[in-house]
């Protein structure tokens, strides 16, 4: 299974890693971002959204309360945070099933709380804390694109 790893020393480096990751992401499907509170999931999403040409990184805020943020062009992106969701039935009121079927890239924080609802072919990104501000970012999934051309 394709897997890529980056080690970053600050938030800007994580956004730069996101720009490299963006070249290996399909433009539709579900990406589950896993990591502790403050690991840098939203920071990585901001970098992805910017690298995809959808919005400046500074315009990306955490969907902690609204749960879903949607970005339109040129790639349809959903940024979802299930941290505050407790009940499985709320998954359905959110309309996640329709979102998963959409022609869109779905970037999901805290999706592991509801693993059995997550598509089996999702890409998983884990962000682990190192010492201080260091983070180790690993992206794994059969749907990651393998780029053989020079970058
Ligand atoms: N190497 C790094 N990569 C990413 N963020 C870093 C790094 N070093 C420090 N930070 C800081 O860590 C914080 C990460 O916050 P962020 O909101 O991205 O985390 P999160 O994983 O989305 O948290 P939550 O689970 O609360 O949504 C930011 O304040 C960011 O500036
Ligand atoms: Mg977050």
Q: Helical element count?
A: 4
**The CATH C-level class name:** Alpha Beta
Q: Ions, cofactors, ligands: which are bound?
A: adenosine-5'-triphosphate, magnesium ion
Uncertain ranges: none
What percentage of the residues does DSSP assign to strands (E)? 25-35%
| Helix/sheet category | alpha/beta
Strand order of the largest sheet: 1-7-6-2-5-4-3
In whole angstroms, the N-to-C terminal distance is 21 Å
Largest beta sheet, briefly? Answer: 7 strands, mixed
The CATH architecture category equals: 3-Layer(aba) Sandwich
Q: Any idea of the CATH topology?
A: Rossmann fold
Q: Give the radius of gyration.
A: 14 Å
H-E string: EHEHEEHHEEE
User: Given the C-alpha coordinates, what overall shape results?
Assistant: globular
> Helix fraction?
10-25%
Mean of residue pLDDT values: 95
Number of structurally distinct domains: 1
CATH superfamily: P-loop containing nucleotide triphosphate hydrolases
> Count of DSSP E strands?
7
């Amino acid at each position: 299974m394709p897997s890529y790893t980056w080690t970053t020393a600050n938030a800007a480096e994580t956004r730069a890693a996101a720009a490299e990751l963006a070249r290996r992401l399909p433009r539709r499907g579900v990406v589950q971002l896993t990591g502790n509170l403050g690991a840098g999931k939203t920071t990585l999403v901001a970098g992805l959204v910017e690298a995809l040409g959808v919005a400046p990184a500074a315009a990306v805020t955490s969907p902690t309360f609204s749960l879903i943020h949607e970005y339109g062009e040129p790639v349809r992106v959903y940024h979802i945070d299930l941290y505050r969701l407790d009940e499985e039935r709320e998954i359905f009121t959110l309309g996640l099933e329709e979102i998963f079927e959409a022609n869109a890239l779905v970037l999901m924080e805290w999706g592991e709380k509801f693993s059995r609802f997550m598509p089996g072919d999702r890409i998983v990104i884990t962000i682990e804390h190192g010492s201080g501000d260091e983070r180790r970012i690993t992206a794994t999934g059969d749907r990651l694109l393998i780029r053989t051309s020079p970058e």
